[in-house]
Amino acid sequence: MSLSVSKRLRLALFDCDGTLVDSQFAIVAAMNAAFVGMGLPAPDAASVRRIVGLPLVHAIAVLHPSGQERLHRALADRYKLAFADARNRGVHDEPLFPGIREALAAIEDAGLLLGVATGKSRRGLVATLDHHGLLDRFTTLQTSDTGPGKPHPDMVFRALADTGVDAADTIVIGDTSFDMLMAGSARAGAVGVAWGYHETAELTKAGALRICQTADELPAAILALLDRETADQAQWVK
Which of 124, 148, 165, 234 could connect to 11 by a Cys-Cys bridge, CB 3.0–4.6 Å? Predict the structure, then answer.
């Protein structure tokens, strides 16, 4: 009897805001500019952090539930303009979280493909990754520009189709419950990070299988979950 395990492609699918980069100050500033520009009170920073990761119009609807869709879309347009203006003026700051660059390199060195699934626009995501010299590291970039956003599993499904990887060989890494729910709906594994915008208890409740306190814990956590999936799926043959 021998254990036969085929070598398969594996994917680490990262959220961006709150996971790869700390964009909270840029997001809060742009959201404040959008609301004030429409004559509305600026939402508090904690509320804005809570909606990071959702599709923009949906996120604004959560912040301003009494408004109609037309107003939400107008606010979304103002948010985009404010965010782009800050970037163009050089006051836009989305630093990488400590250890992220090294963690990505270690995961890639272990033979995994890297991808992103984010509530950012594709234009914004490309600009952010390019700014940090990371754009070429990612095999698949998925945004909510062309389909449902988180927590709907559509972005995971598109990433799987893009890469040819099975859901069982995929780990979603994120800082919000939206990421964990998206992973679970797609039958992918989920790793939560403690340095983002939702509490770790929320991540666990939403389906996180592991919680990483620092970026240097990510490679081992991801590989351990994928190895467990491989062991669970392996079959004994004569």
Answer: 165
Range of the domain at 229: 2-22+94-237
Burial class (CB in 10 A: 0-12, 13-18, 19+), 116: buried
User: pLDDT tier at 7 (50, 70, 90 boundaries)?
Assistant: low
Cα Dmax for the chain? 73
Distance (Å, whole) CA 32 – CA 42: 5
pTM greater than 0.70 = yes
Count the Cβ atoms, other than its own, within 10 Å of residue 36.
13
Indicate whether 119 and 208 sit together in one domain: yes
Give the residue from 70, 88, 106 where a domain finishes: 88
Considering the domain architecture, whether residues 60 and 145 belong to the same structural domain is answered as no
